[in-house]
Design brief:
Blueprint (H helix, E strand, L loop, with lengths): L3 E5 L2 H11 L2 E5 L2 E8 L2 E7 L4 H14 L4 E10 L9 E2 L3 E4 L5 E3 L11 E4 L9 H6 L2 E5 L2 H11 L3 E10 L7 H4 L10 H10 L4 H28 L1
């Protein structure tokens, strides 16, 4: 039986899967990955790095190395509504590449109901653009899913996405300066974080809250993905 492939953008998104499934380090093609099993089914997992370019390249590396039964995207997303709870699971009906407008129909794995649009973009979305996105049915923002979906569809590999809300685009908690505290591979940039805290000591409580929200979201997304694979 072909393996299930989990794809995450950042190490923090893969961590709950590694813990719950006991994944082990391995090589996937010419890059790092993890392997293990889920109820006797082979599992592989990779971290691509942030943004559409790295997401596409990482997915292509994965698909060059293995032909999975399905690619399961797992991670965090930003909500576009104030009322959306942190940790809420987002199961979009469609995923749209914000740069090209290309749409990808989401075929959900396991129980649940799809709803709305997940908007993939490489940039921080200004608050002024949110009303228009909401009018187009957008419920959340991310930086990789459309690129992963396109790479899978070009190879004829089914894909699905489980992302949970870590922050809200409406609250201004993530701006360009804060975004750059992470390296492109998704790991924290320690020097940049230290400089940021020195410049903005009053923002430290907000950063702590964001960290807790991201941790909750990664755990919820991993739990949902594992449950869906078991049910599917």
């Amino acid at each position: 039986m072909a393996p299930i492939a989990f794809v995450c953008a950042m190490p923090m998104e893969l961590r709950p899967l590694t813990k719950r499934l006991g994944l082990r380090k391995t090589r996937v093609g010419d890059g790092p990955g993890q392997e293990g099993s889920l109820d006797g089914r082979e599992v592989v997992a990779i971290v691509t790095g942030m943004g559409t370019e790295l997401a596409a390249a990482g997915t292509e590396r994965l698909l060059d190395a293995v032909t999975p039964e399905r690619v399961v995207v797992v991670g965090i997303t930003g909500a576009v509504e104030d009322e959306t709870p942190i940790g809420a699971l987002v199961l979009p009906e469609r995923v749209v590449d914000g740069a090209s407008g290309r749409e990808h129909r989401h075929e959900l794995l396991g129980p649940g109901t799809t709803h709305g649009v997940m908007w993939t973009t490489d940039r921080i979305t200004p608050a002024a653009e949110l009303p228009d996105l909401r009018a187009r049915g957008v419920v959340s923002l991310d930086m990789e899913t459309a690129a992963i979906a396109r790479a899978c569809e070009e190879r004829g590999v089914p894909w699905t996405v489980f992302r949970a809300v870590s922050d809200r685009a409406t609250d201004g908690s993530v701006d360009e300066e804060l975004f750059r505290l992470s390296n492109q591979d998704g790991t924290p940039n320690g020097r940049a974080v230290a400089r940021y805290v020195l410049r903005h000591p009053g923002r430290l409580p907000g950063m702590v809250r964001m960290g807790k929200g991201a941790k909750l979201a990664t755990e919820r997304a991993a739990e949902a993905a594992i449950a869906a694979v078991r049910a599917g």
